[in-house]
TrEMBL record:
GO molecular function, one term: DNA binding
Species name: Lacticaseibacillus paracasei subsp. paracasei Lpp71
Keyword annotations from UniProtKB, A to Z: ATP-binding, Helicase, Hydrolase, Nucleotide-binding
The protein's name: ATP-dependent helicase/nuclease subunit A
Example of a GO cellular component annotation carried by this entry: cytosol
InterPro entries linked: DNA_helicase_UvrD/REP, P-loop_NTPase, UvrD-like_ATP-bd
Annotated GO biological process: recombinational repair
Ranges where the UvrD-like helicase ATP-binding domain occurs: 2-267
Positions annotated to bind ATP: A23, S24, A25, G26, S27, G28, K29, T30
Length: 267
């Protein structure tokens, strides 16, 4: 019989409200979850077909189903004499129902919900998932090409040309496209892609610019200016020892506005 740690035992038996458990790789998450399910079936007469059990990969789903069925069979065999007739019948029924249990990946469960209630979100019931990476990339390129044509034909063409040039290299103008595709990828990993993309421009809004500059940009610029001022001060001391004063005077002329800027602590 598996010996569980105190924290694992708490994860197995804790009940009555939502529970969030954080565990690292190889810490026995699957084993603990299987035991939690078994305990609910044995002690609470829970029905496995009324449970939702989700994982991240198909392999983990298959493993989970197998482990649950194996654990139920083991419990029926090892605890047969401890269980009442009703408990044994319930356990045997649960073993038979494991294959019908809702054990799936998170994305498969989400897909099932959308397929069932597509009309709630006004979705075409004939939709399909875009799982092929090559097809996805080709579709992105097609949409991007259409968008570029629209922008080049609009009043915003000059601004778009400048934007494209800002991110283009010497060899081609794919820089902006690469950036857009990367932003789409990052947005797709968030819970609200549209809000994520809209929020990217917030720090650059006119009303936010002063705060952004003073809090993020100026500290970095000031650090570099301090290094330059230090170097000029050292050079000035050396130049002051030269017979010709022109070098000292030139360095002092360069250093003066820099020191003034640093003393004001703002550009």
């Amino acid at each position: 019989m598996t010996q569980f740690t105190t924290s694992q035992q708490a994860a197995i038996t804790h009940d009555g409200h939502d529970v969030l458990i954080s565990a690292s790789a190889g810490s026995g998450k699957t084993t603990v979850l299987v035991e939690r399910i078994i305990q609910k079936i044995l002690k609470q007469h829970a029905d496995i077909t009324r449970m939702l059990i989700v994982t991240f990969t198909r392999a983990a789903t298959a493993e989970m189903r197998t482990k649950i069925q194996t654990a139920l069979k083991k419990a029926l065999t090892e605890r047969r004499h401890e269980l009442s007739g009703e408990d044994r019948r319930h356990l045997a029924n649960q073993i038979a129902m494991v294959n019908a249990a809702k054990i799936s990946t998170l994305d498969a469960f989400s897909l099932q919900i959308v397929q069932t209630y597509y009309y709630v979100i006004d979705l075409d019931p004939g939709f399909r998932l875009l799982t092929d990476e090559t097809e996805r990339y080709m579709l992105q390129e097609r949409v991007w090409d259409d968008l570029r044509e629209q922008l080049y034909a609009s009043d915003e063409a000059p601004a778009f040309e400048q934007l494209t040039a800002n991110f283009s290299g010497d060899r081609d103008d794919s820089g902006l496209q690469d950036l857009m595709f990367e932003l789409i990828r990052q947005a797709g990993a968030t819970t609200d892609p549209k809000a994520y993309l809209e929020g990217l421009a917030t720090p650059y809004a006119p009303e936010k610019w002063e705060a952004t500059f003073s809090q993020q940009i100026w500290p970095r610029v000031k650090g570099q200016l301090l290094q330059i001022a230090t170097s000029l001060t050292q050079a000035s001391a050396l130049a002051n020892q030269l017979p010709n004063p022109i070098w000292y005077q030139q360095i002092q002329a360069d250093l003066a506005p820099l020191q003034t800027l640093l003393e004001t602590n703002a550009p």
